Known about the structure:
This protein has 7 helices and 6 strands, in the order αααβαβββαβαβα. The protein is globular. The strands form 2 sheets. Strands 1-2-6-5 form a 4-stranded antiparallel β-sheet, sandwiched between helices. Strands 3-4 form a two-stranded antiparallel sheet. It has a single domain (30-186), classed as 3-Layer(aba) Sandwich (NADH Oxidase), CATH 3.40.109. The protein is α+β, with helices and mostly antiparallel strands and 203 residues long.
Amino acid sequence: MKFSALFSAAAALLMFAGCAGTAVQSAPTLDEVFQTRRSVRAYEAGKVVTEAEVREIITAAQNAPSWANQQPSKYYVALSPEKTAAVLEMIGGNKEKVANASALIVSTYEKGKSGFNRGQQVNEVGEAWGAYDNGLSNAYFILKARAMGFDTLIMGMRYSDQLRPLFGIPDNEEVMAVIALGYRAADPAMPVHRPVDDIVKFF
Ligand SMILES: Cc1cc2nc3c(=O)[nH]c(=O)nc-3n(C[C@H](O)[C@H](O)[C@H](O)COP(=O)(O)O)c2cc1C
């Protein structure tokens, strides 16, 4: 009797622990995200990223810093098969790499905001501050996507003159990268990184 009561209690504890183990999946650390985030050039067909998930990624990207909090970055998200098929024709040789990505997202920034004060260019960098802010936003985007288990490819090889009419992107926005979003079909190789001493000088 005593033994069976103990056994039941132990079994209940084990069941609880088992349930807790499956229910609580720990989030990856920032270093794990950095290590596993790679440019993915082959995606699993039929695995879908939802609009809600893309919203979550872009909401996270809104935490990126920007010049005077100008937040010049904008995202145009192709999710439907028709729209993604159209974008695939506008990214040149990248088409084969991202043919099975779930979403193709055009990243732009509004010109005349970052690096400007009352319409006047603040320093020699000029509009490049908008591109700087856009890159920061994109960095947050791809890292958040990886933290959620997705994969990405930033593509600078794309035809902006064709993408503009497809999404109705106005002239006051600079079209930057197209970002593929989906699930990796295979683990990509780690690229060679320059030694830190090549890129840093301490004084
Ligand atoms: C601005 C920018 C443009 C890029 N354009 C392309 C592209 O058009 N096609 C492509 O296959 N990779 C492109 N890449 C991916 C880079 O080749 C990749 O980030 C680099 O080789 C380092 O690999 P990793 O991202 O796996 O660390 C681009 C990356 C950046 C940041």
